[in-house]
Amino acid sequence: MWSRSELKARAKEILNRNYWKAVLVSLILAFIGGSGGGSASASSSSSTASDNKYYNIFKDPEALAAFLAILSVVLIVVVIMWVIALALSVFVFNPLIVGCQRYFILCGKAPATINEVVFAFSHSYLNIVKIMFFKNLYTFLWTLLLIIPGIIKSYEYRMIPYLLAENPDMPMEEAFSLTKKMMDGDKGNAFVLDLSFLGWNLLGLFTCCILNIFYVNPYQNLTNAQLYEVLKQKIWGNGSRNAYNQPSDSNTYNPYL
User: Fold this and answer.
1) Spatial separation of the C-alpha atoms in residues 92 and 121, rounded to whole Å
2) Within the chain, where are the H helices?
3) Does residue 157 form part of some domain?
4) What pTM was estimated for this model as a whole?
5) pLDDT, tens digit, for every residue of 91-147?
6) Domains of the chain: total
7) Torsion on CA atoms 257, 252, 236, 221, rounded to nearest 10
């Protein structure tokens, strides 16, 4: 059974040995993986003049046509921007997430280079793109049902980027099966592990996120990589067997297990 204190102690040791690289990779991960949530509050004026102006637009056919034309252009621009953002997320950001997690895994075992961040672009790229896309899609669809099932599924699928970081050619069915086995019985523990960083993140807010950039984010990312290393033992034991449940002398791509 793993403990939070052990994972964090290992993460601190690794951070001390790889500080600036870990900070840089964490900054990349925060940029591509962070969701910027802005609260937009609509302030409306209820003046009679304003109401009459909109009423006159719908009365005048030419004004209405112009209004609809402008609205169509705005909608087209919004759709194009959304498609571009989705394409960037699927084909660029998701592979980079896998590469960042690969760096955090490897730097705990041996000196690792920043080049690991782009690892996915030269190793089974389309397979990684496909699996990460379906991971996000399934999580989104579960979230549409209710928030709680979406959160549970996000924890259930949590190990997929790490699995792909070490086994980029892993079939999708295998990736989803293994992450479920790894997180079985540990979703609650992983949630508590995340909560244990809440105080650090609150402190980061008081420093305008400077503390997050230079300490909290790399510390948490390395801790999560150590969680993967511990949960991996559920599937492969001491590492004598690989991701496809084959003997270790198999030709299956699995260089770091």
Assistant:
1) 9
2) 4-17, 19-33, 48-59, 61-88, 94-106, 125-145, 147-156, 160-166, 172-183, 187-195, 198-206, 210-211, 217-231, 233-236
3) yes
4) 0.82
5) 999 999 999 999 999 999 988 999 999 999 999 999 999 999 999 999 999 999 888
6) 1
7) 40
